[in-house]
Amino acid sequence: MDGIRTISFTIDSRIENVSILGVAIAGICHHLGMSEEIGGQTDLCVEEAVINIIMHGYGQQPGHPITVDFVARPTCLELHIRDQGTPIPAERWETSLLEMGKNMKEGGRGLQLIRCLMTESRYEHSSQGNAMTLIKDLLP
Questions:
Q1: What mean pLDDT comes out for the span 85-108?
Q2: H helix runs in the chain, sequence order
């Protein structure tokens, strides 16, 4: 046993499913011994990513799968979020950190939050779909 545990969830692209995913995230973070602050940041970022997929990737259309793999490692929680929706434009992902603080309108800050709050974040699009990887250290 290498201390790595994996759990996968697949939800339909409906906004009401995000809260169900949030309950799962909170439980996993608690089980891993994350502080409330770190667990809350993780939950916020995953929910933001999934809401972005539903709103922008799938145009608010239900009936599309979104898969979240939780990989618990000894020092961090790794999350792999996969979908087949419209990809995030590469320039939007790349500039999201540079825009922090500049975009003060309501909404539109999800990628900025993800990039700032997670220990590490990556995004890639391929012929197999979209994949976002979020990593959060278990301890500050």
A1: 71
A2: 16-31, 36-52, 90-95, 110-117
Asked if 87 and 127 touch (Cβ cutoff 8 Å), the reply is: no
Residues 140 and 123: their CA atoms lie apart, in Å, by 23
How many residues belong to the chain? Answer: 140
Q: What is the pLDDT of residue 95?
A: 77
pLDDT for residue 104 is more than 50: no
CA angle, residues 92, 98, 104, in degrees to nearest 5: 85
* Short-list 84, 35, 26, 87, CA closest to 56: 87
Task: For residue 47, give the amino acid letter.
Answer: E
Nearest to 7 by CA among 85, 67, 87: 67
What global pTM score does this model have? 0.90
pLDDT band at 92 (very low <50, low <70, confident <90, very high): confident
